[in-house]
Design brief:
It contains 24 helices and 19 strands. By secondary structure, it is an alpha/beta fold. The chain binds adenosine-5'-triphosphate (ATP).
Length: 624
């Protein structure tokens, strides 16, 4: 109240007046507070009154004074307060029936709990075509399928495939049916999410070949884009195999050969016709595709019918050279150039048919925002996992591993890690094993250690980005031919690579995310074969690893316990093997450093031959 006392030099009567006015004012305020309390109890208080209530009686006074001061027409202070109280009461009365949440109170301190917006997926994502995971009881006999061309049936049989896998059984007839529709109808684009090793490759290879087979001339009509060279080479090999007797040609553009050589394989120049295409199906890496779009003369996608993106989520994460933008731009420019001013039947019928987009991956997230960038036309999703958006969010994230895969993890200390690792080979006698580390240096060290420790009995090879492509292919070939027992690799080999002979996968370093985990363990347990995957986890990594696994909704992983005595039994040669490995690595580093210094210095200058000047030497002798 002191704040509102204005000291004036007046007589005693005037002072009494002020006191009585204040008392009256106080009474009215109390009355007002009582009134508000009543209102509050009845739940009919307006938001304005709530604000006033929160600020307490002294604030009320202040606010009322402020309001009244603004009112120029009010003659004296007493009247002012009276009017204010009445005004407020009238105001409150007028709003008394309105619900409390009708107005937003700015600056109000009680926060309303926000209603969480439920994620609603587009219909095509929430209502996927379900694919079975069961590769043990197959019912789709290849020979009985009328929709498959006899030439293809013959090749499929020659590859030893008698039954189609569930993903193939669903996706192949769907694509074929979509392309049977007459011209104005456009095929639905598709996304396929099925476990590793479930046969996704054949589910796009077979329908594409069947639709394009026996061409009249060669044009690029199918483009298959992959994230890495090895994968592109693998898919091109499958296409080449199944294109036998179909008149189709396949080209691999992935940077394994020089650009010029790839261009020769792709286009040919003739005096009469200009540039002629030599291929029908291109299997490429995204980066190399952009190079050809910009540098290869005559490279035309006017006739492109299929665009397949394998390992689509990986390509989405890392759009190499902005390839999709360049591809679409190239197609747009070509379409504009081919437009004629006259519209007649021949120009309409010769117009380019839309490109059918097919996306495949074992870890394709049904994220509408990510999928949006592909510009899919009325897409359909084929998925193994149920995607029911409204009930359980975890289900949306779920990735599936093959039923035949046994997943384990081992917890140990950092010191025990190499011993635990070696136990799988020394005691459990594992061969045909693929091991993953998180860096190429780590892969190199581990390879050296195992080779020394196993003293030649265990055949171990390294496979990382540090090696050139020819060496990597050689390692894979030797592994397939059982000339190598263990491959130590980085994640370069984690995705898509098909090694049917691989029985075990060991993650020496735990994977950094769930997708890497799914693809690593997916190198075994493929095509219905049994496989075992083990992840070695250091004590302080257990929490992180479990979180990664849970994010996929995977409950199949089990802890493996290795007895202390088993580890102790391996200690005998351990020290010496570690010592020898360190020595070897140091020696290698020393050689590398020496080489790089030599390279920096440039070629050694040849020692100049001195010309013997007889006169000079004679003179020098004289002076000496
Ligand atoms: N119908 C079939 N019968 C027998 N084997 C098959 C059949 N279809 C595919 N395979 C074999 O299964 C293996 C895995 O197939 P594929 O590479 O297509 O799997 P994927 O689903 O693409 O796996 P990833 O996601 O790891 O790339 C291959 O060796 C392939 O030859």
């Amino acid at each position: 109240m002191d704040l509102f006392i204005i000291n004036r030099y007046t007589d005693a009567n005037e002072d009494n007046d002020v006191v009585s006015r204040e008392t009256l004012h106080l009474q009215r305020l109390k009355q007002k507070i009582e009134e508000r309390k009543k209102n509050y109890k009845n739940h009919t208080i307006t938001p304005d009154t709530i604000t006033l209530k929160e600020q307490g009686p002294s604030q009320d006074h202040k606010i009322n004074n402020e309001i009244s001061n603004e009112n120029q027409d009010v003659p004296d202070e007493q009247d002012k307060t009276e009017t204010n109280i009445e005004d407020t009461t009238v105001y409150n009365k007028s709003k008394v029936d309105k619900p409390i949440n009708e107005f937003k109170v700015l600056g109000s301190t009680d926060f309303e709990k926000k209603i969480q917006v439920e994620r609603v997926l587009p219909y095509w994502l929430s209502h996927a075509y379900r694919i079975s995971k069961n590769l043990q009881t197959l019912t789709c006999v290849v020979e009985d399928q009328d929709w498959l061309h006899s030439t293809l049936k013959a090749t499929v049989a020659s590859e030893g495939v008698t039954h189609l896998f569930p993903v193939q059984e669903q996706v192949i007839p769907f694509i074929l049916k979509e392309h049977k529709q007459p011209e104005p109808f456009r095929p639905h684009d598709i996304c396929v999410s099925a476990p590793t090793g479930s046969g996704k490759t054949l589910s796009f290879v077979l329908p594409i070949i069947q639709i394009l087979m026996n061409p009249l001339g060669h044009h690029i009509r199918a483009l298959i884009v992959l994230p890495v060279q090895e994968l592109a080479a693998q898919i091109a090999k499958v296409f080449k195999k199944y294109c036998t007797n179909t008149g189709l040609r396949v080209a691999l553009l992935c940077g394994s050969a020089p650009l010029q050589k790839e261009q020769q394989q792709l286009m040919r120049y003739t005096q009469t016709l200009g540039w002629i295409c030599e291929t029908d199906i291109i299997v490429c890496t995204a980066g190399r595709l952009v190079e050809h779009l910009h540098n290869t003369e005559g490279f035309s996608l006017k006739h492109l019918k299929f665009l397949v993106i394998d390992e689509a989520d990986r390509i989405m994460d890392n759009i190499q050279n902005d390839w999709l933008y360049h591809l679409e731009k190239h197609i747009q420019v070509e379409m504009q150039m081919s437009k004629t001013p006259h519209i007649n039947w021949s120009t309409i019928s010769s117009q380019k048919s839309p490109i059918h987009k097919l996306l495949f991956s074992a870890t394709l997230s049904p994220d509408p925002e990510l999928l949006e960038q592909w510009g899919l036309f009325q897409p359909k999703l084929f998925s193994v996992t149920p995607i029911n958006d409204t009930t359980n969010k975890n289900i949306i994230k779920k990735y599936s591993t093959p039923d035949e895969l046994h997943e384990h993890y081992v917890v140990c200390s950092a010191e025990e890690k190499p011993l635990i690792f070696y136990n799988f080979f020394a005691n459990l006698k594992w061969d045909k094993t693929l091991c993953f580390t998180n860096s190429s240096q780590s892969a190199h060290r581990l390879t050296a250690l195992l080779n020394i420790w196993g003293s030649g009995k265990l055949r171990v090879a390294e496979l990382s980005a540090a090696l050139d492509r020819a060496s990597r292919e050689l390692v894979l070939r030797k592994f397939k031919q059982s000339e190598i027992d263990v491959i130590i690799s980085t994640d370069a080999l984690a995705r898509g690579i098909d090694i049917p002979e691989c029985d075990h996968v060991i993650s020496y370093d735990p994977p950094r995310n769930i997708k890497t985990y799914i693809h690593r363990v997916g190198r075994t347990g493929r095509a219905g074969r049994k496989g075992t995957a083990v992840t070695i986890v250091i004590n302080n990594q257990v929490h992180m690893f479990k979180e990664i696994i849970q994010s996929s909704g995977n409950n199949n992983i089990q802890q493996m316990v290795i007895q202390r005595e088993v580890i102790d039994s391996l200690l005998e040669n351990y020290e010496s093997a570690i010592f020898e490995t360190k020595r070897l690595i140091n020696e290698e580093t020393h050689i590398k450093v020496k080489k790089s210094i030599e390279l920096k210095r440039g070629p050694k200058s040849k020692p100049r031959k001195r010309k013997h000047n007889e006169n000079k030497s004679i003179n020098r002798q004289q002076t000496l």
